Amino acid sequence: AIRDLPPQYVKPRVHIDTENDTANNIAPENIPSGKDKVEKSNTGIEPYSGLSEEEQREIEELKRRDLEVKAHEQAHIAAGGPYVRGGAHYEYQRGPDGKLYAVGGEVSIDVSPIPDNPEATIRKMQVVRRAALAPAQPSAQDYHIAAMASMEMQKARAELARMKATQAYGQASVMGTNQVQSSVTSRLFVIA
Fold this sequence. Notes:
By secondary structure, the protein is of the alpha+beta class. The chain has two domains: 1-27 and 50-109, no CATH class; 111-176. It is 48% helix and 14% strand. The protein contains four helices and three strands. The chain has helices at 53-80, 118-132, 140-174, 177-191; strands spanning 13-17, 84-94, 100-109. The chain has a three-stranded antiparallel β-sheet, covered by helices on one side. The chain is rod-shaped, with a radius of gyration of 28 Å. The protein starts with 12 loop residues before the first strand and ends with a helix. The model is unreliable at 1-45 and 180-192 (pLDDT under 50).
């Protein structure tokens, strides 16, 4: 689920639409070599040069949130199949280390019914519903989309039932009048 961060973690945010997340690419000169040793502070957090312990904790929280957001959106994409429109769109926040971290995201999915094909609409809405509820912690918006898909499935089932009833009535009309009367008479006779 996408949730707000505590006030101490809220910084100006940057919105980036991307299918390939490159916002956190590290410049080659910033990649530590195998020779470099990073010591841990007494809090167990790896120190970032020139940052306070509070800023270091903020970075760790942003990293955790970034992973959570990306996993959430990838779950939607994996389950949504052909109905997902484009990739994930992330909302980023710049951390005290200058890097961008995903703090929110969304995936667009097609929830329109398939015209004149209630069976296909039912199958599609089952996929949409599964995609909406795919993340470990669906958001309120995810539940809303799942409910919309369920409503479209109900409409499609009602349309399918109406079509079958119309088809059955049409077949009964094709039968001769005598056959219909005979059928009704025999039913009345059995019931009486």
